[in-house]
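Bench notes, afternoon.
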Amino acid sequence: MSEFKGEGTLLEQMEALVGDWEGSIERRYCHLANAAALLWQHLERVNWVGFYVRIPGREHLVLGPFQGKVACTDIAFSRGVCGKSATTKESVLVDDVHQFAGHIACDGASLSELVVPILDGEGNLVALLDMDSPYRKRFSPEDQRMGEAVASLLGARLWS
């Protein structure tokens, strides 16, 4: 069973929240900030939810809007769970981050992680949705599917 509260309405709420986008970076970050807050409200047993945004033309991510403790500001594609997701353009669900070679411990309390790539209309990686939990095996395949639906919506709305 998914631990997204109000799962049936999360995408509807996200669609309403991330409405029209006029193309500005400021408005994109505004929408990502609200998306992080909405996910934070819907998820249970998490200690971090947010976004890492790709620096155009580079294999490097910078911290975007998030909810939770202070986080790593820069992540190369060659490092950690985020780097693996960025490189493969696939979701990465890790039941125990201590068993993941090269895990970046931004918050030592995090024990499991789910990272979902956000792609633009041409299939280019533009950002990542990152979710951490202080519980092992916190994220389910159902959570992954919901995260992927959110990422698809954000990619279509904010990078098209």
